[in-house]
TrEMBL record:
The keyword Membrane applies. GO terms for cellular component: membrane. This is Glycoprotein-N-acetylgalactosamine 3-beta-galactosyltransferase 1-like. It comes from Diploptera punctata (Pacific beetle cockroach). It comes from the Eukaryota. It is found in: Membrane. Belongs to the glycosyltransferase 31 family. Beta3-Gal-T subfamily. One of its GO terms (molecular function) is glycoprotein-N-acetylgalactosamine 3-beta-galactosyltransferase activity. Keywords: Membrane, Signal-anchor, Transmembrane, Transmembrane helix. InterPro entries: C1GALT1/C1GALT1_chp1.
Length: 402
């Protein structure tokens, strides 16, 4: 009964606060019609839709203690929400490869979070397994890739993400955004732009198609010859995709959040965070952005070198913020062998049966025989360096060997 009363009192208070917020919004709207969007739209509609979808699954959430999750015994019930979404929202990630090292980096980083990962290339990439196509235009390339996807994965995935090999993707944020959408309906998601009067999603930011959209595309272009006839130029595959989809009644959906900030970015994090510090984009058809305007649920950002993939992956998946401090992680690890036993074992390995009879001088001499002097060690490293340069085909004069 006390709990019911407490809950009711809290509800009365919450209702009072809500009424106050509504009145404040109405007053703001009467004074300044344009301020209502930023002052009163305090929640992203996609988050509301996701929460409604989640509740229909008859599931409950509870906060995870990072300290226990990272260092405690695995006694917490249930699974992580990201793991649940991984199983429920199946995403195929398609990467168009121009550099083998980028493909390798994707495979070892964000590509792990995809349900399936497929690499396409027009070249024979030796660093990684790719599906090699021989297109005569960029649309021919994309169209044949779509036909391959439908034939190989049509019944196994729900959504298909298309990405260049310098794009960093956060698949968890993508699933969070699309979970409540029906993949059996047509969807075309990304960073929309207009060129020659055509609205389409920019390839550089990546884009996402539902499996229903893939099905309709392969039905329209059921041969490689039809793909080629419907787009004969290079570097405009994204434009042609938007054009053909619009003819089918499928258009880009605005994926920005309620603050007007993008989830799909065609620029790197430096430009997204502070575009005023950089030159304006050369392409005048690309929309400008306000400094620091990126969604808290960003899905993609572009312009990534291969080494940065590993940095961002480490920051996103391995660095944890313990907002309430950590306890378990600050304890030293349990020692299976004592320090005393470690040095005694070393002495026994050197042929002395009773370590307790070894003097400090004898112990030092044992180590001295194992570790060379600084002069000897430096000479060894210099020799190793010379061997390394020689193996690279560089002579002492600095000329490359033929």
């Amino acid at each position: 009964m006390l709990r019911r009363i407490y809950t009711f009192e809290k509800s009365v208070f919450s209702i009072g606060v809500l009424i106050g917020v509504i009145i404040a919004c109405l007053l703001i709207k009467s004074e300044n019609e344009t301020s209502i969007a930023t002052s009163c739209q305090i929640r992203d509609s996609s988050i509301i839709s996701y929460n409604d979808w989640f509740l229909k699954k008859d599931l409950k959430r509870y906060m995870v203690d990072y300290d226990l999750l990272s260092y405690g015994k695995n006694e917490q019930q249930g699974i992580l929400e990201s793991s649940f979404l991984y199983d429920s929202v199946r995403v195929l990630c398609v990467v168009f490869v121009t550099k083998g090292k980028n493909a390798n980096a994707i495979r070892n980083t964000w590509g792990r979070q995809c349900n399936r990962l497929v690499f396409f290339s027009t070249e024979n990439i030796t660093d990684i397994s790719v599906i090699q196509l021989k297109p005569k235009s960029s649309w021919h390339y994309l169209c044949d890739a779509i036909r391959y996807i439908w034939g190989s994965y049509g019944t196994d995935v729900h959504w298909i993400l298309f990405a260049p090999d310098d794009l960093y993707v956060i698949p968890e944020n993508l699933r969070y955004y699309i979970a409540h959408l029906d993949y059996n309906r047509t969807y075309y998601l990304g960073n929309d732009i207009i060129f020659w009067g055509q609205l389409y999603n920019d390839r550089e930011a990546g884009y996402v198609l539902s499996i229903e959209t893939i099905k309709l595309l392969q039905r329209k272009f059921n041969s490689s010859e039809l793909c080629l006839k419907s787009g004969r130029y290079w570097k405009n595959d994204d434009f042609y995709l938007g054009k053909h989809l619009s003819e089918m009644g499928i258009y880009p959906i605005d994926t920005k959040d309620n603050n007007g900030c993008a989830r799909f970015h065609r620029y790197n994090l430096n430009y997204v965070g502070a575009p005023h510090l950089y030159k304006s984009p050369i392409n005048k058809f690309i929309k400008q952005m306000n400094a620091g305007c990126f969604s808290e649920h960003t899905i993609t950002y572009n312009g990534i070198e291969s080494d940065k993939f590993y940095l961002y992956y480490y920051l996103l998946y391995h660095v944890k913020v313990f907002s309430h401090g950590g306890i378990l992680g600050n304890y030293p690890p349990n020692k299976t062998v004592s320090d005393d036993e470690i040095w005694k074992k070393f002495v026994r390995d050197e042929g002395i049966e009773n370590p307790d009879l070894v003097s400090a001088k004898q112990y030092y001499e044992l180590w001295e025989r194992k570790i060379p002097s600084p002069d000897v060690l430096n000479a060894f490293f210099r020799e190793q360096s010379r061997d390394a340069f020689s193996s690279d085909g560089i002579s002492n004069s600095g000329n490359q060997q033929q």
